[in-house]
Amino acid sequence: MLILVTGGTGALGTVTVPRLVEDGHTVRVLTRRPRTERDVRGDLETGEGLEAAVNGVDAIVHLASAPHKWNTPRVDVQGTRRLLGEAAQAGVGHLVYVSIVGVGTVPSRYFRFKRQAEELVVEGQVPWSILRATPFPEFTEGMLRTFSRLGPVVVPARTPWQVVDAGEVADGLVSMVGHGPSYAVDELGGPEVRPFDEYARAWLRARGSRRPIMPVWLMGRTGRTQRQGHLTTLDGANGRKSWQDYLDECYGTSGAKGVSEKNPS
Ligand SMILES: NC(=O)c1ccc[n+]([C@@H]2O[C@H](COP(=O)([O-])OP(=O)(O)OC[C@H]3O[C@@H](n4cnc5c(N)ncnc54)[C@H](OP(=O)(O)O)[C@@H]3O)[C@@H](O)[C@H]2O)c1
């Protein structure tokens, strides 16, 4: 099949594209900055290049997103609407959309736009499948770096957390492409649901750091829904790679590799 991947240059996209190729598909990647022969220029925010990008395509794997940016609604919501419109015109047979576990219940600006994009996919004319994933380990490590800028690692108190390997999410997306439209929202999470502070502790241990951990109580519905476990999935906990596996790959099993507390990077 000829598959268009939006967001094919991003963290999830770069592990999804080779898997689609391995599975025997021909892949076209939509990007604002084409670099390889596979890439076609296009911008979800303006609609530039979308008509040509969907031409002749059997399925679309829609991963592109502008998280935490001022233009999130223009890319994630209006961009998805534009993509669906062009895809319907071109007779594309399947759109696979990646979303996030908890978008329906945890209040956050980004989640609200992801949820609106999901609704457009569900209500649109293009046959669809949706996969909601829990956070990737790289994203979680980014959070931990941000949370430790001031010294102690500030973590949300009593908050269950679950990371899933991006490669395993990519496997799920490739499988969805192969099976055809499911008209269902599936979930995928990693093998472990553990309190966020345990993630922080394991991260500090792997880096050989003795920084203290400071749990904070998040107020309001955001904190409450997170503490209730809405960012995690038990039914979809089918990932195999754990947080510790990720840390072992990054830092080695025997502790910090090339990282010192004076120079944490
Ligand atoms: N990160 C996580 O932990 C996580 C967890 C669950 C689900 N997800 C979902 O997975 C998806 C991919 O996340 P990621 O972490 O791989 O994202 P990422 O690394 O930030 O990549 C974002 C991608 O979106 C594309 N993009 C942004 N604005 C665009 C525009 N105006 N037009 C066309 N393309 C645009 C970028 O392409 P160019 O820059 O090449 O144009 C890039 O390939 C997102 O939908 C996210 O919600 C992420």
From TrEMBL:
UniProt domain NAD(P)-binding: residue ranges: 7-140
Domain of life: Bacteria
Protein name per UniProt: SDR family oxidoreductase
